[in-house]
Design brief:
alpha+beta; Alpha-Beta Plaits; 5-stranded antiparallel beta sheet; 3-stranded antiparallel beta sheet; about 50% helix
Length: about 325
């Protein structure tokens, strides 16, 4: 009867402590929700798991002790087993230790966008052993903390969107920079974006002279994870402004080469005009007729012409 009473008391105390810890954690989370909710969302499940394991072990030891089982050999055996597991599962131990370091040093949180090695994505779940990232395609990557060498957090406290803007060499760079500041002012006055931007656009100036463009580097400071939305909208407005002001954005061009015959002459290019062509149809039709006439005359000439000067050749083709 005493044993049943002891077990009941231990279980009740366990439940009271567990419920009290949960209530305390919830209270702390609600109190600091506006400050940093992601931080508590990251740490709270880990603290709960550690407390649950600790309370469970303590309760079992108390119950076994009350039943009459000597727990000292069990503790000694558990110590030996722990050493054996430590040697045999060094990777697992490394995962746990690295996970504790990353979490409690606040290197990343749930909701951050991070790069871990070759993997890039949004942090969805963190445990003491592993971390889960979801990339833009929706793929979930599960990475053990033991494999994490470098943590690159793109959304820690604030973010930057970096611009590398290329304009033609003939453009006035001062005018371009002025347009960029105008776009920045418009964006910071927009109700949809003013709360996402922390500071005005920072223009570093002319960064380099590329093969076909003058590169201007700038950046804008935003709230965490908002840099891509702000950057895309800035790019959209910049394209519209450049089109309106006649600012050229260089892009690759392609030259079509028709080849040459053995005499070094280029073949005739058959050009077909459409109704939307900007060329005058009447004048162009006459030009095509004259070209076809010259081509027909050239076909009537013998293949092996004697060597003549340019004046003799022109008189022969008339």
């Amino acid at each position: 009867m005493n044993i049943v009473l002891t077990v009941t008391v231990v279980v009740l105390i366990f439940n009271l402590i567990w419920e009290g810890v949960n209530a305390l954690l919830e209270s702390v989370m609600h109190r600091h929700e506006a400050l940093n909710n992601s931080r508590f969302q990251t740490i709270t499940p880990i603290i709960r798991n550690i407390l649950l394991i600790t309370l469970t072990l303590l309760s079992l030891m108390v119950i076994l002790s009350e039943i009459g089982i000597n727990i000292m050999p069990l503790l000694a055996g558990a110590g030996v087993l722990g050493i054996a597991v430590g040697f045999g599962a060094q990777t697992l131990v490394k995962d746990f230790l690295t996970g504790l370091t990353v979490i409690f040093e606040d290197l990343l949180q749930i909701g951050d966008v991070v790069k871990l090695g070759d993997h890039f994505g949004l942090v969805e779940k963190i445990t003491l052993r592993k971390i889960q990232l979801r990339d833009l395609e929706g793929t979930v990557h599960t990475i053990p903390f033991g494999e994490v060498a470098i943590v690159s957090n793109l959304t820690k406290d604030f973010s930057f969107y970096l611009f590398d803007i290329g304009v033609a060499y003939r453009e006035n760079t001062d005018e371009v920079i002025k347009i960029l500041h105008e776009i920045d002012e418009e964006l910071r006055e927009d109700d949809d974006f003013k709360d996402r931007i922390l500071e005005p656009l920072e223009v570093f100036g002319v960064d380099q002279f590329a093969d076909s463009a003058v590169m201007i580097k700038a950046r804008i400071k935003t709230r965490p994870i908002q840099q891509w939305n702000v950057g895309r909208e800035f790019n959209r407005r910049m394209k519209i402004a450049f089109d309106e002001r006649g600012i050229e954005i260089p892009f690759p061009h392609q030259t079509i080469y028709f080849g040459e015959d053995k005499q070094g002459r280029a073949p005739n290019a058959n050009v077909h005009l459409t109704k939307n062509s900007t060329v005058d149809p009447l004048n162009d039709e006459k030009e095509i007729g004259r070209e076809q006439g010259r081509s027909a005359k050239s076909k009537d000439l013998p293949e092996d012409l004697p060597e003549k000067n340019s004046s003799d050749y022109e008189s022969a083709t008339k």
